[in-house]
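Exercise 7.
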Amino acid sequence: MPSSIDARVRVFAWLSFLFEVFIIGTGGAVRLTGSGLGCSEWPLCTPESLVPTQEQGIHGVIEFGNRTITGVVGILAIVVLLFTLHAIGGRRAFTNAVWFALVGVGAGLIAYAIAAAAGAEAFPFFAAALLLVTIVAAAHSLRTTPGRKDLPVLAWIVLIGVIAQAFVGGITVLTGLNPFIVGFHYAASLALVCVTAAYLVRMREPAGARERAVPVWFAILTHVTGLAMAVTIVVGILTTGSGPHSGDVNVVREGFDATVLAHVHSWPGYILAGLVVALTAAAWIQRLPVRGWMLLVAAVAVQVLVGVWQAREGLPALLVGIHMVLAALTAANYTVVVLKLKRPTAG
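Solution. The predicted structure, written as tokens, is:
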């Protein structure tokens, strides 16, 4: 990339990453303050108003604030994508993406009008039509844009993910905060944090072939560590979904026992901590790059401490929120570590 373009991409890519993390915090605030139905409708806040009314109080403000951040996240995803396409594929790739955007909005509005006329919830149809056109646009862009593919792929994934998250967010409200949909909503947000982190890493590296920079056993054990992290996060989502923070005082959790799940959640968490410490020690002994691992050790250690603390204090909302955000940052750091297992091929 030219240096001037690279500088702009880097700034907006970092903003995209930070806001993907930030929206996990605001989404957690919605749930932990019982504001999940602070806005009873989607995309409007009430049947008559886009913004919260005085009757909805602080819960409406918190829920609407999270929706506003979703818009910011979407705008940043679009900016990063367009800058990336322009830097790699030139004006033609940029223009094609803009045309597809206009077609997507038009298709969404048509779907919205048809659904509204039929008396159905219209916004899911708008989001679904926009999502479908965006997926088609991504396929066309990746097929026709010359040059490196990794950055456009990551940028398209983020934009598609943000649109899909808007769709899931609407379904979450319409289903009265179904715990499984809420959990999926969080997991998808965490995945987008990891994708934006991957973009930050790859943006600093040249295009072309890459080779393994660590022994095979180290790479395998690193991926096993990732599996332990994924299990820890999934069980943690189920634990939170079964706990006292349902998102609204009228939502009652059923099914899983939160107390039992809290103990089950700790098992893969301790395995994860042990694997990270072992890999860090091995990296020092083998003189492998250890900077990322040291940060991951710190992140996992803090997560363990916060997890134990919140369990002993009866899951106070603030600690649960911190735990949710730290999980995203820990997963992002792990993503960086995995990408450093390979390096650009010399020459």
